[in-house]
Specification:
Radius of gyration: 24 Å
Order of helices and strands: EHEEEHEEEHHHEEEHHEEHEHEHHHHH
Active site: 56, 134
Number of strands: 14
Domain Catalase core: 9-403
Distance between the termini: 40 Å
CATH topology of the domain at 23-358: Catalase HpII,  Chain A, domain 1
Organism: Faunimonas pinastri
Protein name: Catalase
Keywords: Heme, Hydrogen peroxide, Iron, Metal-binding, Oxidoreductase, Peroxidase
Number of helices: 14
Length: 541
């Protein structure tokens, strides 16, 4: 597999000196528009497939509604946000939800070990709000410039057109922050039993902003009222032998019989700021916010009660974007969120067309008075009507014609930004192994056994040098974790432990490495039931 080493360049032929980090204002600051290297890379990636989605190609969708409780925990929701969709009670906001797998093609099995997409379009009275997330609460990487490389590694080999374990782990081995996600994905949590019985998460960090312009960091989560259920590999293989679309069938059958799937919408809140007292960066999407410190606070519920009438028109052409927010919900400087915000909508304009928002599945609801000066483009089939604005498609107009800016009714949110422009990697990377180890120790015995079997089987398909590096990572998360994977894969643990740190990275922090593992079944949270056949894993752990 070795080739002569060549220098990575842009498509213009410029040498790439840092392929790991966006340019940003300071280590935690926002990304800047002159990120030519990133923009070239991500926009090319967005256009790699037509017409199928590059990622999340296999999917199913359903219509429903959202109803806010008017509170966040015990507090009025208005204390934290001026977003009407989260404040007003008695209003059923129309919604469309698309569930999906990530790496597989459009006709791939729904039993694959793969994260599940959980994309929600709220059609609010103030315009659309898209919350585009996954079933798991963390992700593989924390900088969007790495996303094309990650998906390339997870997709089939460009020569053989086969997904290869060595390609997956070759990428993961160079990114210690991915070990947390891998620990989730290779456990029973990596194969949800269906779409109705899985959690959802916005994954990225956003901000809620109230009428006084005060912001709080926020994470969004969906908790299924049906409970959480996952599959082991043998169970998934048995189902796949009979039905490659079992999760879609389960969703539509439930709706048809009136057993409408329901989720409670919850948030985790944190004061706006850097939070140096935490052992992780709250903007790092490879980390979870511990729920004992930042509890899940209910804010509303979602019910799905109608299946699509046409798959292509409603599911395949449904288009979501992380930049589609309503007033009272704002961006954080999460670098994955900022990169996704460019990429997602850019992909939709390419895949569906520049007028994808004119399609009924994507357009705001009729009661929302939307109007723009955007005209023409491929597949335009109507023009916003507004009297004299038919002639005046620009703003402002000296004659006072056409569309006008909306009045400012609330205090603007202002974030102070100062820093040196450059490419930064987080200086808080020492925590990359801590949550992975915590997660391993939180699993029940059978979940750990399943995790070890899955990883061991994968590493047997990898070159020894790559497998040893992966064991090095697992051992730094938890000694028992690394030892058991090494034994299962038939590899020398001592040889793995003797490896040096990754080039350019410091050794894992001593306080985070080699924790003591106490065998025995993890205590099950009160009120959570695990199925006797071990097909279910307890939620919120």
């Amino acid at each position: 597999m070795s080739d002569e080493t060549r220098t990575l360049t842009t498509r213009q032929g410029h040498p790439v000196h840092d392929n790991q980090s966006l340019r940003s204002v300071g280590e935690r600051g926002p990304a800047t528009l002159e990120n030519y290297q990133f923009i070239e890379k991500i926009t090319h990636f967005d256009r790699e497939r037509i017409p199928e989605r590059v990622v999340h190609a296999r999917g199913a969708g359903a219509h429903g509604w959202f109803e806010a409780y008017g509170k966040i925990g015990d507090e009025p929701a208005s204390r934290y946000t001026r977003a009407r969709v989260l404040n007003e009670t008695g209003v059923k906001t129309p919604m469309f939800v698309r569930f999906s797998t990530v790496a597989g093609a459009k006709e791939s099995p729904e039993t694959e070990r793969d994260p599940r997409g959980f994309a929600v379009k709220f059609k609010t009275l103030e315009g659309n709000w898209d919350l585009v997330g996954n079933n798991l609460k963390v992700f593989f990487i924390r900088d969007a410039i790495k996303f094309p490389d990650m998906i390339h590694a997870f997709k089939p080999d460009p020569v053989t057109n086969r997904q290869e374990a060595w390609r997956f782990y070759d990428f993961i081995a160079a990114h210690p922050e991915s070990i947390h996600m891998v620990t989730w994905l290779k456990s029973p949590w990596g194969i949800p039993a269906n779409y109705r019985e899985m959690e959802g998460s916005g994954v990225n960090t956003y901000k809620l902003v109230n009428a006084d312009g005060v912001a709080h960091l926020v994470k969004f989560h969906w908790q299924p009222k049906q409970g959480v259920r996952n599959l082991t590999t043998p169970q998934a293989q048995e189902i796949q032998g009979k039905d490659v679309g079992h999760a879609t069938r389960d969703l539509y059958d439930a709706i048809e019989r009136g057993d409408y799937p329901e989720w409670e919408f919850c948030v985790q809140l944190m004061s706006d700021g850097e939070h140096p007292e935490l052992d992780f960066d709250p903007l790092d999407d490879t980390k979870r916010w511990p729920e004992d410190q930042f509890p899940l606070l209910p804010v509303g519920r979602m019910v799905l009660d109608r299946a699509p009438s046409n798959f292509f028109a409603e599911v395949e052409q449904a288009a979501f974007g992380t930049g589609v927010l309503v007033d009272g919900i704002d961006f954080s400087d999460d670098k994955m969120l900022q990169g996704r915000t460019l990429s997602y909508s850019d992909t939709q304009r390419y895949r569906v067309g520049p007028n994808y928002l004119q399609l009924p599945i994507n357009a705001p609801q009729v009661q929302c008075p939307y109007a723009t000066n955007q005209r023409d483009g491929q597949m335009a089939f109507y023009v916003d009507k507004g009297g004299e604005s038919d002639h005046v498609n620009y703003e402002p107009s000296y004659l006072g014609r056409g569309l006008k800016e909306a009045p400012k009714s609330s205090k603007e949110y202002h974030q102070y930004i100062e820093g040196h422009l450059g490419r930064y990697q987080t200086s808080r990377a020492m925590d990359d192994y801590k949550q992975a180890g915590d997660r391993y120790r939180s699993f029940q015995d059978w979940e750990r056994e399943d995790l070890i079997n899955n990883l061991s089987g994968d590493l047997k398909q990898c070159p020894e040098e790559l497998a040893l590096r992966m064991i090095w990572h697992f051992w730094h998360a938890d000694e028992d974790y690394g030892r058991r994977v090494a034994e299962g894969a038939g590899l020398d643990l001592e040889k793995a432990k003797a490896l040096p740190p990754l080039p350019g990275r410091a050794a894992p922090h001593e306080n985070l490495a080699h924790p003591t593992y106490t065998s025995g079944k993890a205590e099950e949270p009160a009120g959570v039931t695990v199925a006797p056949d071990q097909a279910a894993a307890a939620p919120n752990r």
